[in-house]
């Protein structure tokens, strides 16, 4: 079942993706514009095909920036698709009009950063497809370039120069994507994801919560938060071992992720405690949803909920009030101790 709740590292990255893409487009567009100014300053003429290629690159960059600006703080998937296509095309098109090998290699640096962006912000299969498309378009751009030469006084034919540029450029782009892009995403996942349940951890939840508040607008934003605690979790660990306790936590995490309202944030914030919240519309439905899930869950749990409207930084207060409600709920319930010889909880660690 596909989880309806926002519980993965992609929720955290949503806050950074438009900013990083916007900065990339600003920088590359400015560099393409600089290509019209710098060559005459050092006594080099600009060929018509170079002017056409750089103009196309600048127009694509400006177009993508306008689309991102119109998308606001949280651009739509369609906006990302349009901007990604523009970024993919801009650098190879500029490379197709360059005649200096060094200029083509400088463009390859921009492609390196774009490849790292793909690996960090897109799922693995999709990022590899995008990096492959970028590399292929870059190869086409260098091949169809009118000519290629170096600034050193050595006779080298055009084919050799282009081959050298392609080897260096492709190696740098693919290497940057696989090394630095993958490392960056791994570090982000480690810092914001719970290793046992694959939900967000406390740090990841707080980042996603702030992003959700910002995305909801500047008005009176309403939030409902619920703290969830597994019933008799200590008894499970004492009777059946920590492996059984881990299995209980994973089962509950999967159950909650598959049944929470769409758009709700979900995280494991420590031990047997989970947290979920809904920001904006229909936030007041969360306590009713949690009550129904508590009745139907195969893993017994208690919860406490709290709501807030219009506060600038409501998370601390919500935690405090929800924790108080959770304590009251735990006091009202007296679930029986689990049987001492329940075979369904036996594992290799406690047999």
UniProtKB/TrEMBL annotation:
One of its GO terms (molecular function) is cyclic-guanylate-specific phosphodiesterase activity. One of its GO terms (cellular component) is plasma membrane. The chain crosses the membrane at residues 24-45, 51-67, 79-95, 101-122, 129-149, 161-180. Residues 221-342 form the GGDEF domain. Pfam families: GGDEF. The keyword Hydrolase applies. Keywords: Hydrolase, Membrane, Transmembrane, Transmembrane helix. Its EC number is 3.1.4.52. It comes from the Bacteria. GO terms for biological process: cell adhesion involved in single-species biofilm formation; negative regulation of bacterial-type flagellum-dependent cell motility. Residues 325-351 are annotated as: Disordered. PROSITE patterns: GGDEF (PS50887). This is GGDEF domain-containing protein.
């Amino acid at each position: 079942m596909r989880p309806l709740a926002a519980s993965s590292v992609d929720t955290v990255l949503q806050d950074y993706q438009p900013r990083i893409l916007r900065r990339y487009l600003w920088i590359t567009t400015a560099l393409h514009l600089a290509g019209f100014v710098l060559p005459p300053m050092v006594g080099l003429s600009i060929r018509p095909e170079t002017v056409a290629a750089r103009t196309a690159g600048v127009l694509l960059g400006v177009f993508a920036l306008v689309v991102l600006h119109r998308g606001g703080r949280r651009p739509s998937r369609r906006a990302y698709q349009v901007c990604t296509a523009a970024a993919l095309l801009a650098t190879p098109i500029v490379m197709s009009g360059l005649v200096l090998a060094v200029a083509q290699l400088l463009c390859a640096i921009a492609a390196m950063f774009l490849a790292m962006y793909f690996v960090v912000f897109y799922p693995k299969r999709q990022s590899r497809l995008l990096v492959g498309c970028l590399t292929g378009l870059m190869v086409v751009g260098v091949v169809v370039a009118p000519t290629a030469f170096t600034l050193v006084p050595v006779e080298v034919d055009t084919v050799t120069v282009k081959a050298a540029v392609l080897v260096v450029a492709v190696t740098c782009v693919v290497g940057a994507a696989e090394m630095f892009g993958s490392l960056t995403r791994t570090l982000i996942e480690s810092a914001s994801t719970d290793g046992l349940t694959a939900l967000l951890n406390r740090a990841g939840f707080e980042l996603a919560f702030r992003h959700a508040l910002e995305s909801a607008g500047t008005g009176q934003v309403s939030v409902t938060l619920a703290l969830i605690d597994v019933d008799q979790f200590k008894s499970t660990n004492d009777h059946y071992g920590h492996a059984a306790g881990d299995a209980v936590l994973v089962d509950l995490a999967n159950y909650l992720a598959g049944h929470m309202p769409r758009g709700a944030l979900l995280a494991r914030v420590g031990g047997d405690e989970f947290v979920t919240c809904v920001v904006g519309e229909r936030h007041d439905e969360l306590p009713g949803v949690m009550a129904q899930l508590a009745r139907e869950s195969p893993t017994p749990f208690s919860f406490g909920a709290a709501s807030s409207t219009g506060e600038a930084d409501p998370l601390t207060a919500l935690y405090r009030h929800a924790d108080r409600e959770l304590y009251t709920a735990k006091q009202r319930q007296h679930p029986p101790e689990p049987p001492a010889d329940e075979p369904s909880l036996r594992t290799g660690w406690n047999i």
